[in-house]
Specification:
Layout (H helix, E strand, L loop, with lengths): L5 H4 L7 H22 L2 H8 L4 H15 L2 H9 L4 H18 L6 H30 L3 H27 L4 H21 L9 H8 L4 H4 L9 H13 L2 H14 L8 H21 L5 H6 L1 H17 L5 H32 L6 H29 L1 H21 L1 H5 L14
Helix pairs in contact: 2-7, 2-8, 2-9, 4-7, 4-18, 5-7, 5-18, 6-7, 6-9, 7-18, 8-14, 8-17, 12-17, 12-18, 12-19, 13-14, 13-17, 13-18, 14-17, 16-17, 16-19, 18-19
C-alpha cells in the first residue's frame, strides 16, 4: 500500500478551518479597540471627565470587581445556549457601554457604565476561549498560541494609534479613541454571527441523555470540585506576570536612580514582540496534557530568575541596571508565554465535557482576580525593597510546584477534556 503524501496528514496552519480564522480576525479587531482605550482610560477620566485620583481608583476597582461575575455567568450560559448568540449580545453590550461613556462626565453614571463594560469584557473573553476550544478540537493549544499572537499584534497597533492621538492632547483626540473602541465592538458583533456554532459536549449530552462515564466522572459543577477550585487559586498567582508589566516594571523604573524612564514603554514593546515572535513556536512543546504539565518546571525557573534579575538591577550602575531589567522583562515574558500554554491546556483537560462552559467560566476568575490582587502584590514587592522581587519570583515558582503536584492525580486517571471535534468548512 502506498504511503499517504506528507501533505495529507500535515495539520492546518490555523486550526478550526474558516470559522477558526474568522474568530482570529474578531480577536484581532477586538484587541485593536482595547489597545486604543486601555492605555488612555485613566487619562480620559482624569483630563476629560475631570475625576479626582481617588474617584478614578474607585471606579477602576468597583468596575473590575463587578466584571469578575461575567466569567462564570457567561460560561454557565454557554453550556445551555448557542455560544455565538451570547457572544454577539455581549459585543453589543460592550459597544453600548463604550459609547455611553461619551454621554456623561458625572461620576455615578460613569461608574455604572464602566462596570457594565467590565462585565461584558470578562464574559466575552471566556466565551472566546470556549469557542476556540470547541472549534480547534485536538489542535487547541496551537490555536491558542496563534490567538495570543493575533491579540498582541492588535494591542500593539491600537497602542501605537493611541500614542499618536495623544500627541495632539485634545479632548477631541480622546473622544476619537473612545469612538474607535466602540466601533471595534460593533464590527465584531456583526462578524460573530457569521461563525458557525461549534459542537458542545454539554448540550449534546443534555439533548440525548447520554455521555461517556469515564469523561464525566466526578463533580459536574466547578463550585463542588475542590481540586479544580484549588487549581484556579494557583492560576491567580501564575497570572501575576500581567501586573509585572502593567504596574511593577514601570513603578520600579520610576523609583530606580539613574534608570531612564523611557525604558518602561520599551520593555512593554519587548514583551509584545517576544509574544508575537515566539508564542506559536513554544506551543509545540505543550500539545498534550502531560507535556503542558511538564512546562511548569521551566515556567518556575523563568519566574524565579526574573525576580532575581530585578533584585540585582539595584547593585550596579545605569548600564547594568538597564541590562538586568531588560533580562528580567524577557524572563517574565517567557514565563507568560509558557503559562499561556499550560493554563490553556490544563483548564480544559481538568474539566468534564458536560460542563466545559461552567468550568472555563470559573477558571476565568483567576485572571479577573489577578487584576484586583496583582497591583497589591507588585507594590508590596516594591515596598519591601530589592529582595521583595526575589520573594515575588520565588512565590510564583513555588506555586508552579504546587500546581504540578495538584493536577497529577486527576490527569493520571485520564483526561476529562472535550473529545476532538472539527467544524467543517462551508
Amino acid at each position: 500500500m502506498e504511503a499517504e503524501p506528507e501533505t495529507a496528514v500535515r495539520p492546518p496552519r490555523i486550526p478550526g478551518g474558516r470559522d477558526g480564522r474568522r474568530m482570529l480576525l474578531i480577536t484581532f479587531i477586538d484587541r485593536i479597540g482595547n489597545g486604543l482605550w486601555a492605555s488612555v482610560s485613566v487619562l480620559y477620566f482624569t483630563y476629560v471627565s475631570g475625576l479626582s485620583l481617588a474617584q478614578v481608583g474607585t471606579l477602576a476597582a468597583v468596575s473590575g470587581a463587578i466584571g469578575i461575575a461575567g466569567a462564570p455567568l457567561a460560561g454557565r450560559l454557554a453550556d445551555r445556549h448557542p455560544l455565538t448568540r451570547i457572544l454577539t449580545a455581549l459585543q453589543l453590550l460592550r459597544a453600548i457601554a463604550t459609547f455611553g461613556l461619551l454621554a456623561t462626565d458625572h461620576y455615578l453614571p460613569l461608574l455604572a457604565i464602566s462596570a457594565l463594560g467590565s462585565f461584558g469584557d470578562r464574559a466575552s473573553s471566556v466565551l472566546t476561549k470556549l469557542y476556540a476550544n470547541r472549534v480547534a478540537g485536538p489542535d487547541r493549544v496551537r490555536y491558542q498560541a496563534v490567538n495570543r499572537t493575533a491579540s498582541n499584534a492588535g494591542w500593539a497597533l491600537g497602542g501605537l494609534a493611541a500614542a499618536a492621538a495623544l500627541a495632539l492632547g485634545t479632548t477631541t483626540a480622546y473622544h476619537g479613541l473612545l469612538i474607535g473602541d466602540g466601533l471595534s465592538f460593533l464590527a465584531i458583533a456583526l462578524l460573530t454571527p457569521t461563525c458557525a456554532e461549534p459542537p458542545s459536549g454539554s448540550r449534546i449530552a443534555a439533548r440525548t441523555g447520554t455521555g461517556t462515564a469515564s469523561r464525566t466522572a466526578g463533580p459536574t459543577s466547578p463550585w463542588r470540585d475542590r481540586m479544580y477550585l484549588a487549581f484556579v487559586a494557583t492560576e491567580t498567582v501564575l497570572f501575576l506576570d500581567d501586573s509585572v508589566f502593567q504596574i511593577g516594571l514601570p513603578l520600579w523604573i520610576a523609583h530606580s536612580e539613574g534608570v531612564p524612564h523611557g525604558l518602561a514603554p520599551l520593555l512593554l514593546v519587548l514583551n509584545n514582540v517576544m509574544v508575537v515572535a515566539l508564542q506559536v513556536p513554544l506551543a509545540r512543546y505543550g500539545t498534550t496534557t502531560s507535556a503542558a504539565r511538564k512546562l511548569l518546571v521551566p515556567l518556575s525557573a523563568a519566574s524565579a530568575a526574573g525576580g532575581i534579575a530585578m533584585t540585582l538591577s539595584t547593585t550596579g550602575g545605569t548600564l547594568q541596571a538597564v541590562c538586568l531589567l531588560t533580562a528580567s522583562a524577557a524572563l517574565f515574558t517567557l514565563a507568560e508565554m509558557l503559562h499561556a500554554v499550560v493554563s490553556w491546556e490544563l483548564s480544559v483537560a481538568l474539566a468534564p465535557d458536560t460542563a466545559q462552559g461552567a468550568y472555563l467560566g470559573v477558571h476565568g476568575l483567576a485572571q479577573s482576580g489577578q487584576r484586583s490582587l496583582g497591583p497589591f502584590a507588585v507594590t508590596a514587592a516594591i515596598a519591601t525593597g530589592p529582595l521583595g522581587w526575589t520573594v515575588f519570583g520565588a512565590t510564583i515558582a513555588v506555586t508552579c510546584a504546587l500546581q504540578h503536584r495538584l493536577v497529577r492525580g486527576r490527569l493520571q486517571r485520564g483526561p476529562l477534556s472535550v473529545p476532538p471535534v472539527t467544524v467543517s468548512e462551508h
